Amino acid sequence: MSDSEKEKKKHSNRHFSVSVIGIVIYSIVLIGVMVASYVGVKVVFRNYDNMMAQAPQEIQEPEEVAEESEPAPTPTPEPEEEPPEDVEIDHDIDADSLTDPETGVVDYSEIRFKPGKRYKSLKWQDAVFSRIENIKDPANAPVNTFDYKRVSAKLTNNESSEYKVYTNPDNKMVEKITEIHDCGGNLQIIDFYYDNGDLNYAAEYKTFVDKPVNLSSANIESRYYFRNDCMVRYIYCKDGNATEYRVADIDTYSKGTVEQFDYLEKDMINRAYIVYNLAPTLPETEILYGYVMDEFSMPMEDAKIVVKTESDNRVVAETVTDGDGFYKLAIDCKDDDTYCLTASKETLTDVGVYGITARYGSGKYSIETIYMGYENNLTQYPSQFVVRDALDPNKPLSGAGVMIRKGLNNRTGEVMQTGAIDDNGNGTIMLTSGSYTAEVSKGGYETLFMSVIIRLDHQFAMGFAVPDVADDTYQAVVSWESAPLNLSSKAISSNQARVIGSPVDSLGLTTAETVTIDNAGTDDYRFYVTDLGAITSGDLMAYNMTGSCAYVQVYDSNGLQGNFHVPAANAGVVWEAFEIRNHTLLPVNSYYYAVEDDALWKTK
Fold first, then answer.
1. Half-sphere exposure of residue 118, counting CA atoms within 13 Å on the CB side?
2. What pLDDT score does 505 carry?
3. Residue 98 predicted with pLDDT over 60
4. Is residue 184 very low, low, confident or very high in pLDDT (cuts 50, 70, 90)?
5. What residue numbers bound the domain in which 230 lies?
6. Closest CA to 495 of 143, 162, 216
7. Domain boundary at 249, 281, 313, which?
8. CATH label of the domain that carries residue 474
9. Is residue 161 part of a domain?
């Protein structure tokens, strides 16, 4: 190859190399531009997606920003006004104005009190709850020894509420009121706590049976925390999961959540102060009720019922029975007196029921059914007595003496006959038709007082004597006539810290159970009897227990302290017989035909 040809070929190769390099550089630049564009677009869309996710704030389309523009300054929020120190708010109102003057009905829907000014920086102060409830040691909670009253009021829609008012004896201030609102199918229960008259805290839950609950458990459905009449915190619990709402976060909630928060605050403030002004002023009365029958178990219409004080024989109430032999009347509560109820009717022998109490805090007093004999029927029946040991119902009480008095719960009146119990725990005394009291006494046992009902088809009485009771102890003996009947009895202390049952199962021919409350102290105990058989079978409207003539006798180291008889002609499966509050027995006699699906009512 010539020199000129070699030079031409060399130039051609050099030109080709430059072209290839240019193409490569161009390709790299093009790829870079595409990548940059992709990244920029992706950033734009990612930022927009983030904005859309910031619910419930209102979303706006992003504005275009000019190149090299200065960033917009961030506005400085105005500081919130500092909340004042706790202020005095006048919540007093004429209690008479809270009820309808003609019907006496309370209407919670009428707004009488409104929330205070809302400050997001307000904090709740535990001024009452922990101090009086003592959750860690409920048996020694100060509220257990507070002055206590139980009153009721009619509400709209034919509903009603019962109020338990707790007054601190040291400062004479009402610091807690429990409202039991009967909604027809269930109970709405609200515990209101007041600090010097200001609502401080409220706890709300629903139930079928009014009973002690653990105040720090998930059983409490709603908790309301207040300061200066502003709800600063609300906790809602469902299925064991709690959700908290705070006034400090109110701006972050959806419109619907804020509206609900506002509604709860307004409703609870209004209701709490209506209750605070009304409940302590309501007159406290005790309802006495029962039935009157003749010796043939026929209802006695127009029998006269008179209630007198036992201290000075003063008439405090009277009425007559209806066509079913039923009566109901009210007497004022009074701690320092007892009463006698007498049933009378022409041609029939008068019957008295003695030692009726009407202490402050009492509920209803169920009088056992009164049976009256005819004056012209002098037939005497061989009346058999059977007495057993209450702690061992199969063990007869032998060698006991018996004294008979006319009337029911007659512990001190004139003795009309005497007798004795043999080694088998049996005795026989001749009696005419009517209602009597047998006093059975034996060394080592508390004196037994048992009702004796004699009529044409009934000349039998069974009682259960309690061995001497130790100090700071209660023995509650539940007995009944109908067998077999599967009743269960239990005492439940405050905060449901103790649930005490009977070691004896009442199946078969055993017709008695004894519940022992030891180390009672000043704790509050509520006593329930349940028809376990009917609950298990699902027959919640059963009449088994109410027709069994069941009754409870309560003893302490000073002997018999109270008799409580199952209300007659009531359908249901749970009977709250009484409450022991600050060493005082209070009749309750609430009856329930629905129960929660838990072990408390469905097991022994």
1. 17
2. 73
3. yes
4. confident
5. 95-281
6. 216
7. 281
8. 2.60.60.30
9. yes
- For residue 257, count other CB atoms closer than 10 A to its CB: 14
Residue 551 near residue 369 (C-beta atoms within 8 A): no
Q: Which residues contact 295 (CB under 8 A, 6 or more apart)?
A: 371, 372, 373, 374, 377, 433, 434, 454, 455, 456
DSSP state of 110: S
| 218's tokens | 């998930």
Task: Count how many domains the chain has.
Answer: 2
Question: Which residues 6+ apart lie within 8 Å of 51 measured at CB?
Answer: 59, 62
- Backbone dihedral angles phi then psi of residue 562, each to the nearest 5 degrees: -175, 150
Closest C-alpha to 118, from 275, 251, 276: 251
In a domain, residue 374? The reply is no
Q: Is the pLDDT of residue 497 over 60?
A: yes
Average pLDDT over residues 371-376: 98
pLDDT of residue 78: 52
Strand 304-309, strand 230-238: pairing: unpaired
Close Cβ partners of 483 (under 8 Å, ≥ 6 residues apart) = 508, 509, 510, 511
Asked if residue 591 is part of any domain, the answer here is yes
Proportion of the chain above pLDDT 90, given as a percent: 80
3-class secondary-structure state, position 14: helix
Q: What is the pLDDT of residue 486?
A: 87
C-alpha to C-alpha distance for 356 and 339, rounded to whole angstroms: 5
pLDDT value at 46 more than 60: no
Q: Give the number of other CB atoms < 10 A from CB of residue 89.
A: 13
Nearest to 176, CA basis, from 188, 190, 162, 155: 190
What's the pLDDT at 504? 81
pLDDT, residue 428, reads 96
What pLDDT, on the 0 to 100 scale, is given for residue 58? Answer: 32
Phi, psi of 158 (to 5 degrees): 60, 25
Q: 298, 317, 299: which is closest to 307 by C-alpha?
A: 317
Residues β-bridged to residue 448 = 440
Closest residue by Cα to residue 185 from 544, 566, 567, 540:
540
Residue pair 351/303 in contact (Cβ under 8 Å)? The answer is: no
Q: Is residue 82 part of a domain?
A: no
Tens of pLDDT, residues 535-580: 999 999 999 999 999 999 999 999 999 999 999 999 999 999 999 9
| pLDDT tens digits for range 502-531 | 988 766 566 889 999 999 999 999 999 999
Distance (Å, whole) CA 97 – CA 14 = 110
Q: Which of 559, 483, 472 is nearest to 522 (CA)?
A: 472
Do residues 570 and 592 make contact, with C-beta atoms less than 8 angstroms apart? no
Q: SS3 for 40? A: helix
pTM of the model: 0.85
Looking at 255, 281, 307, which one is the last position of a domain? 281
